[in-house]
Every structure is written in C-alpha cells, then in structure tokens.
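Collaborator request log, item 7. Partner lab (contact: R.S.) asked for a structural prediction of CopG family transcriptional regulator to inform their binding assays.
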Amino acid sequence: MKGTPALNRPAKAADSEKITINLGFVDLGHIDLLVAESFYANRTDFIRTAIRNQLAAHGDVLKQAVARKLLVLGLQHFSAADLEAARAAGQQLQIRVLGLASIGQDVTPELALATIESITVLGALQASSAVKAALAGRIH
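Returned to partner:
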C-alpha cells in the first residue's frame, strides 16, 4: 500500500536532522523491492513512513509521556533578549523540549550560564559551539 502524500512530503533542511542507520541486507532488499514496485518513491520515503506509522501507533503513550515530563512539543527558541528578560526577573530556566531547542547566535556563554539551569532535549539542540561547551554539564 502506498503511503499518504502528507506523510511522504520531504522534510525541509531547516526542520529536520540527518541520522544514519544500519540495516540488514535482507531488510534493505525488501525496501528496495517496494521502491522498485512503486510503493515508495525511494528508501528515505519508506523509512520516514515507517517511522511515522510507529509514532502514530504509540501516539497515546507519547502524549502521556510528554505531559508527564512537562516537555514543550515542537520548536522552542531562546534569543539573548529572552534570556536577558529571565535574568532581569531573577529566573533560572529549565528547558525541556521534544523537537528542536534553539539558542540564538546572539547568546553569549556567560548569559547562557547565568540563565539556563538545565536543558533536556529529545530531538535536537541548536546553539553555538561555545554555548554548548559552557552548558555541557547542564545538558541532559
């Protein structure tokens, strides 16, 4: 059965992360056969569809876990202005994201250390290498 068009649209570079997986030769051959039979456009299309199907199958469990862990779902961005506001309010942030957490290029390592107590990201964290290095002990 072909995947639905909504599930098969290619992800944009800005909203995706490249991963590498190892597959057995037989599994890979099965995928190639499905591609050759026009069930999927390519290997990536098959793998994305399979992953989305598994995520949908476990949807209720995922929703419960997101709520239990108090995770922000999607994209959460922090600019220098956001962190300066937190510092002015005397707040230490506990960042919890399922998706993408982004710390602006305008954020200095000193500002990040002064305002971010902890970071838990299930997905990807984008920040300068200097900010990541400064927060290394606070990233879980």
